Amino acid sequence: MTALDDAWPPSDFDPRTAVLPPVGDLAMTRAWYGFMTARVTIALALLLLQATQYALTGTVPAWVLAMCALYLASALATRLLARPRLPRHALEPTWLLTVGMDVLVIALLQLFQSGTISYTPLLGVPVLLTAVLGTRPMAIGMALAITLLLLLETWWASAHGMAESTGRSLQAGLAGLGYLLVAFLANQLAARLMREEQLALAGLHAARLQAQVNQLVMETQTDGVVVVDTHTRMRTANPAARALLGLDPAGLRPALDAQPSWAPLLELARATFEQATPQAADLTLRSTSRGARRLRVHTRMTEAPGRAHERLCVMFLHDLREAEARTRTEKMAAMGRMSAAVAHEIRNPLAAIVQANALLDEELQAPGQRQLTQMIQHNAQRLSKIVDEVLDVARVPEAGRTAPPSLLLDASVQDICADWAQRAPQRRRVQLDLATQGLPVDFDSEHLRRVLVNLLDNALRYASERPAAIQVTTRLSADRQSSLQVWSDGAPLEESVERHLFEPFFSSESRSSGLGLYICRELCERHRASIGYQRSARQRGGASVQGNEFSVQFRPPKPAERTPPAH
Q1: Three-state secondary-structure class, residue 405
Q2: What does the pLDDT look like over 149-184, one tens digit per residue?
């Protein structure tokens, strides 16, 4: 079952064999209260009628008034104090008291009436009450009992010469037949209403269960899921989608046109609605605060038949960084052992070449020949550096070390930048802005030097000759997490280059091994830090200049280290 399966019930659902959840008889409870209210109304009307006749004509016995008052009190007590309870058999005391009192009071009024008023139609109330709230045998039995009562009342009247027996008997029989039909039909309708209520409550129970399953699936799914309506407003987004889009976990769900970086998603959603077909695309969402994020997006559309305005677009967002990381891991697993073995094999003949070239350089005197030996020496050194980088990638962290030593970030960055700039002071000019307030970070000092030197060399390769072309900054976030930024005013990277920046053996230059940024990322991950790239603006000479920025986010400090040391 997936989060987008059809709602209950399925096509093969059979209500006759389905196991239904407990039902609270909601419809029958409402009917019970309705009948009890009707009994109170009838009792009040009878009491007022008898009291009026007693006051005007004096022909109503006092015991009739007392009986009507007692009937009204009983109906009120039942309506206000009794709890709704459906009878399961005809001998329940509460049921006998309720229905029996109705029949008794109406029969006595009909038998001892002083005028021409007929109370026979009121006997339909207990018949309906039994038919709706009771079982079918109870309903048929009540209708037959009232029919018998009407026939007895006709016989009584004819025996005392109060009415003609044949016509009254026929009328009583027809009334009884009508009550019997009403009882049967009302009981059938009530039973059908009960079954419909059971099915409705079962559907509601299954729908709630399905909603919980859908919510659980969306909450735990690693891919992002966003549901968008025809107005491109987000109906819902799971935590993975909120993380991918940079949304506040507890915030509102905005429209897709709320942020410029979501424009590719907006266009894909509109294409899904316009073409009414699923769409798929690899998109790049660019944000000034989060950099570029590549997503693989698939869309599906739901639509209620005949209601085009209620269509929804479901977007599945898959972070391509995970796929690229798996590919990179598989590639390195295949290349790692081979690269280390090849590097070891290259080292020995390379050392022999370097030594032989040094001996040859001592014997040669001609400038042209010495230039050739210098070329050999230069390329041998370059090849030796590549071998060292390959071996460093294959080398695992030192065993037994549980945590790297701490260092003061600002002081370490200042020393590394000073050493790097001294090698060529005319070209290597760095503007520093250090602001971690002396807070330490967990990072090996030699590894930090390698990371920062690699980033500085990379910045120098593409930076201009203008002042402040290379800027190194350190920052503290709101939760006092330290970060290091290396910025240069170089031209923007091509998308194909940016996509593979931190992959091994990838370089846009033919004379580079393509391992510098990869080694930086590996060293950062060993210390639970992260490194990323984005295009950002910096102030230079009073103007805002766009450039390339590599940022290292260090491991958050321990609680005891969150306060900077006192000076």
Answers
A1: coil
A2: 778 777 776 766 655 566 667 777 787 788 888 888
Per-residue model confidence as pLDDT tens digits over 60-118 = 888 888 998 998 998 888 888 877 766 665 556 777 778 888 888 888 887 776 556 77
Cβ-count burial 531-559 (b if 16+ within 10 Å, e if not): bbbbebebebeeeebebbbbbbbbbbbee
Q: What is the largest CA-CA distance in the chain?
A: 159
Are 336 and 394 within 8 A, CB to CB?
yes
Q: How far apart are CA 562 and CA 265, in angstroms?
A: 39
Contact 234, 254 (CB under 8 A): yes
- Strands of 276-340 (E only): list them: 280-287, 291-304, 307-319
**Domains of the chain by range and CATH?**
26-200 (no CATH), 222-395 (3.30.450.20), 406-561 (3.30.565.10)
User: Where is 502: in which H helix or E strand?
Assistant: none
Cross-strand pairs, 253: none
Tokens coding 557: 């400090």
d(CA 67, CA 74): 10
* Short-list 440, 383, 379, CA closest to 410: 440
**Side-by-side strand order, sheet with 280-287:** 234-237, 224-229, 307-319, 291-304, 280-287
**Which long-range CB contacts under 8 A does 511-518 form with residues at least 24 apart?**
511/382, 513/385, 513/386, 513/389, 513/390, 515/386, 515/389, 515/390, 515/393, 516/389, 516/454, 516/457, 516/458, 517/454, 517/458, 518/393
What the block records as the tokens of 30 is 């409402």
Question: Tokens 């419809």 identify what position?
Answer: 27
- Residue 249 in tokens: 């976990």
- AA identity, residue 540: R
Total-model pTM:
0.43
Place of tokens 């004509």: 57
Tell me the percentage of the chain whose pLDDT exceeds 90: 10
Query: Could you report the per-residue pLDDT of 400-426, keeping only the tens digit for each?
Result: 345 567 889 999 999 999 999 888 777
SS3 state at 316:
strand
Residue type for position 12: D
- Summary count for the chain: helices (H), strands (E): 14, 12
Q: Please, which pLDDT band fits residue 394 given cuts at 50, 70 and 90?
A: low
Q: End-to-end CA distance of the chain, in Å? A: 62
Distance CA 198, CA 16 (A): 11
Angle separating helix axes 516-526 and 367-394, nearest 10 degrees: 30
Q: Which of 13-22, 160-169, 353-362 has the lowest mean pLDDT?
A: 13-22
Structure tokens at 437: 């307030």
Residues with Cβ within 8 Å of 350's Cβ and at least 6 positions away in sequence, in order, are: 380, 383, 384, 387
Asked whether 310 and 303 are in contact (CB, 8 A), the reply is yes
Give strand pairing partners of 441.
Answer: 407
The span from the CA of 64 to the CA of 70, in Å, is 10
